[in-house]
Fold each of these.
Amino acid sequence: MNSLTCNENHDSKKSGQDIEFLYKYCSLNKDNAQHRERIFTHNELYFRSPRVFNDPFDSKIRLEFEGSKDAWKTYLLKLYRKKHPDWNREQRLAEIRQIIRERRYERIPEGLLDSYLDQIGVFCMSEVNDQILMWSHYSESHTGFCLEFRATSTTPFFSRAQKIIYIARNIHQ
């Protein structure tokens, strides 16, 4: 199965030029009423968890961890020092020996990714304000609205936005 290919820059004359504005498509449903209101009342943006994105393939990161048991032991010792500062060295080593004995370190990447996704938020924007699919998907079937944010190099927050380029690839690789 292949993931969907998406490139939201549908207007070829815009490619290669500096972007002056970025757009946020919004719906008027009651699920996001509080976040929508705070944009206007507090100049506050809401960064959603990637876990609640409507595309099941968004933020699906494939992690590969390689290394010897000794490398894993060193890595896990550092991790457990941060995670359990109240444990003494023997307690940490006992836990790590058990992880290595049971080969649980082979499943750790999934847990790390889950933990990472729980700690981040994403504010999705578009370079275009007139894309029919964006209006359909993100503004509740064309009933919502689209906010415009200045995003020039002199705009402190929006000038740091990072463009995401979607590529087609086999999701089972």
Amino acid sequence: MSGSQTPIPPPLTILLVEDDASSRMLFAHYLKTTPHHLVLAEDGDQALERFQSGACDLVFLDLHLPRTNGLKVLERMRAWEREQGRAAVPVIMMSSVTPGEGEVLVQSADCAGFMPKPCRKADILALVGKYWGYKPMES
């Protein structure tokens, strides 16, 4: 190895759309030692407002939200991206459905992946790392 390390990409701005306060706090706790910026939304209306007002790099979206479910929120996000001529931001759908049902959900919706709830720290960090494109060298 030449001793040179891959340059570290800029931190991600991650939008978490989750109506459960304890789940939001836990998610934030998992990411607190990372360089990433977490933006929180409690429902579909807040999610769309925050999505449209900032440059999000990754979205974790709960399927079951008050008033507007996650699939409808995702549909509106994608419509806005098309109207603005923007590339699709990766969206990870979260739900307490079984992993098999989650995979069907991913195939039928315009999302990048599925994460079963309750969300595990290792799964969250692995997905963030995948979209960040950087893995620190092990010592």
Amino acid sequence: MKRFQRLSFVLLSVLSGLIVSGCGNGGRPADLPKTTPCALTIQYEDGAPISDAIVMLYPIEGKWYSNGKTNSSGQVKVAVNGSFSGAVPGEYKVTVKKQDVQFPPGYDPDSENPKQTEATITDYVSKEFVSPATTPLKLTVGNSKISETFQVKKTKK
């Protein structure tokens, strides 16, 4: 009887694991097309790399966006919906956003005092590059690996 209980427990654990992981496909959506690896480098106009910037690839047609965060060299490998390496072949508008948010000393997120919750936000990339409606950056993804460098303007002080 104990052997049956152990076997039942093991089978239940395995089935639960398969269900949680999407039956072995890593949770990849069934309708997600094959993706292409995309390695991008983001720099300011003077060639300086931009670290910790959020890079978004918005599809001009279709539903599969890709995104990622730059490293200290300004490099990013984007992933579809932030989870599946690469980008679906197609045309994209590319946005770049880097901000620093500073909260006041003693900041309490649960405070009812509005002055207590005010933060200072510093933008490092010109706002034209932040929105898909205004960005001049475009990327065409085909079936071959992409390696592309984009340059953006700094925010005017």
Amino acid sequence: MNFFLTDLEIDDIIKRPKYYYSDDLQRARWHTQDGHKKRELPLNSDQSISLLKVFWRQNQEDQLDFTVGLAYRFPDTNVDVNLIRCNGNSHSHSNTLEHSRLVQDFHIHRATQRYWEADPLKAENYAERTDRYNEIVGAFRYLCEIAHIGERNHGVRQLDEFKP
């Protein structure tokens, strides 16, 4: 099976409305691994798309060393690809194909077809500076904004369910 997404497919997945349940966010527990705290949150969609999740990773010693991202799982596989990562400013980043460097800025990684073709394991290696957040909670809020992720309560019918 070929694991590949075009820019149009990446944009389509990112732009489709997604949501998580409040209870799931409260139940998403942090666990420790390799000096980092990590957790995941499954996402839902009213449209037919494969499994999506939000993931967090934060260094236990450096609060500015974090990432909050959106991952997509290819249908009928266990292959995930990160479509977006909102990173802290604990490190510099190089956009290898553009030969440019971001020096310890908050930055957002985004999967692109161009980077995917260059190295499928680093599809989201392109990054741009941002001033839209300065800590991990703000990064989660911003990810929700740019990836069209909303919050729902179990048992409460949403307004969009009443559309004709």
